[in-house]
């Protein structure tokens, strides 16, 4: 019976977590549910009799969360065996390790239960609560970095709708949200366990202090959020851009048809603006809309479509286009990048042989980047699984683009510096922080999420990306194939957007603000490091106590 209840609690925690973050029923999730999603996990791990059991329970919870929240990875064509199957296996395995870490403080402090209930020790409850919150924060940080990084399915995502609380991201990064929510969950769970024993006496005064500390953190975070969210921010320049959302299947659509559709959508929107006397600064398209590499295939884009080619159209309009198109890194070694290119007049004159492109650095594991892809055994393995063994090469440079502006006064600087995180790169704070350090005034993300075929996938990607605007206090633009195309301001507000899975082009005004050095920009991921040090100290203290 105990085993059944433990398994139920682990699965119930997974279901609550999946409901708390953006899903098919709650578009942007529920922060309220996020405050309680980890309570069942805390309770079942607290009842575990060994590290092995705790590991299994956490493995069940983390693996189930991944399957419930990222089921759409199964739509990633022939790579589903890796994107969903492989990643799910990783989380089931990782969960076992993280469960044992979560159990360390519980295991040792359980030995003090009699003294704890007698009121002779007061430090065991705070250690359990803070250790759980610290380890969970470190887990969400760890799963968001490296080759297998995947920040989806994190409890911090549930905080999106609470804009006031999420403003702390410019200090702590999103890890502050992880800690706040994990801490609240641990406080509630520990309170439930105390209530279960019908003993809320002064013997548990330390619990009251921890609960008060948790509430204080939320209050202070909210007050800080009120200040930042209500703060008047005046842009010093603006970009008038046409965002093109073609809503096409890039795996099956013929290249000629795709290019023609892009031209038609762009031309219609540009003509509308020209009729109104509005000058367009740039046209932004999504990731991988052009199939053939540059600069070798410049001639293809010069002559396709036949009636009016893409290059001729851009040359006629004299508007810089930002387009997702692969670029050759090293032709002899067959190294090609998933890239973003600036199609401007210089690009046309030099036939695409310019430095105005950025190669995607953080590749999708096994789908875009295959470890040891040059090895015959890996090629044979990949061919047997998906019939494909080559991969993209990662970019090598954090490219800073410069865009001339048409609609600003002569007194204002006439160009804007921007960077282009590609695909899910806008989900990674470390990469965006590196781009910001190059001098970026705005992030322009090019994404193709249309393959997911689900609303939840689009909104989950957007929610994760939206925190980058707050962390760096900069504007974020997302130009996507099918959604969610949007402009976000430095406080995380949505300024303009387009509906999902809709073929259209839309003119958006993108505000550009003076660059601001935030605490997060300066110190990076300092919070997980501090929590790791504190957890290590508390663990050593507990171990030493029994020696």
Structure characterization notes:
The chain contains 20 helices and 14 strands. Helix 4 runs antiparallel to helix 5 (80-109). With 547 residues, the protein is an alpha/beta fold. The longest helix is centred in the N-terminal third of the chain and has 30 residues, at 80-109. The chain has three domains: 2-231 and 525-545; 237-360 and 395-512, Carbon-nitrogen hydrolase (Nitrilase/N-carbamoyl-D-aminoacid amidohydrolase); 365-394, no CATH class.
Give the helix/strand layout.
Blueprint: H1 2-20, H2 31-34, H3 39-46, H4 51-69, H5 80-109, H6 113-118, H7 124-142, H8 163-166, H9 169-172, H10 175-196, H11 205-230, E1 237-245, H12 255-275, E2 282-284, H13 298-303, H14 310-317, E3 321-324, E4 327-330, E5 335-337, E6 339-343, H15 345-349, E7 357-359, H16 376-386, E8 401-404, E9 415-419, H17 429-437, E10 442-447, H18 455-472, E11 475-480, E12 486-488, E13 494-497, E14 504-512, H19 519-523, H20 526-545
Parallel strand pairs: 1-2, 2-3, 9-10, 10-11
Antiparallel strand pairs: 1-14, 3-6, 4-5, 6-7, 8-9, 11-12, 12-13
